Amino acid sequence: MTHSRDTSLNERPSGGAARFAANSASGLFHPEAEPPGAAPAHRRAVGAGPDMRFTLARCSLGPLLVAASRKGVCAIMFGEESDELARELLRRFSQAEFTRDNAELQGTVAGVIGCIEEPSADFALPLDIRGTAFQQLVWAALRDIPPGTTASYAEIATRIGNAKAARAVAGACAANHIAVAIPCHRVVRTGGALSGYRWGVERKRALLDREARARPGV
């Protein structure tokens, strides 16, 4: 894992990310057309909509991608390579149109990195949260977990009123694409052991350690 505090927004993607950012002369990426007969709800579910922007940066946990719609931040993702992050963004928002916009997102990225590096800071940026009704219920419960503390999958299931849904809660955590702002890293196994994390258990441990150290009185 790269441990760098370089937060430059001038990093240029390589491979797939370069094609992603420069697919046309305008810098826009236009994915394949929606299948004939697809319902409008399908487009909303997978992230359709104009004017979605992204940028690539670095933080102490490695490469970082931040994407935003007009409503707010819709993706915060860690990765090992820029082109890997670009491909993941395309998979998640398969019908969206993106443009890379370092300048417009500079303040947003600074806020995201600030929350990663200084966990005591509040995440005050607006979010554009997209998912199923169950996923959004779980993600709302995750946002109620105070920094520096954890909850088990079973505890989250109980909090949302479905004590038998621990496995489904784990699935919703795995589907989260807004790291840190929706703190799925704060969910652990019963007993406190760390379980899987979409962006790597080492990143999960690092985030939890930082939050624990930042707690008042610690």
Automatic annotation (TrEMBL):
Look up keyword DNA damage and say if it applies. Answer: yes
| Enzyme Commission number(s) of this protein | 2.1.1.63
User: What's a Gene Ontology MF term here?
Assistant: methylated-DNA-[protein]-cysteine S-methyltransferase activity
Residue ranges of domain Methylguanine DNA methyltransferase ribonuclease-like in the record: 52-129
What is catalyzed by this enzyme?
A: a 6-O-methyl-2'-deoxyguanosine in DNA + L-cysteinyl-[protein] = S-methyl-L-cysteinyl-[protein] + a 2'-deoxyguanosine in DNA; a 4-O-methyl-thymidine in DNA + L-cysteinyl-[protein] = a thymidine in DNA + S-methyl-L-cysteinyl-[protein]
Biological process annotations from GO? DNA repair; methylation
- For this UniProt record, give its keywords in alphabetical order, as a comma-separated list: DNA damage, DNA repair, Methyltransferase, Transferase
> Does Methyltransferase count among this protein's keywords?
yes
Q: Which domain of life is it from?
A: Bacteria
All copies of the Methylated-DNA-[protein]-cysteine S-methyltransferase DNA binding domain together span 133-212
Q: Which family is it part of? A: Belongs to the MGMT family.
Name of the protein this chain belongs to: methylated-DNA--[protein]-cysteine S-methyltransferase
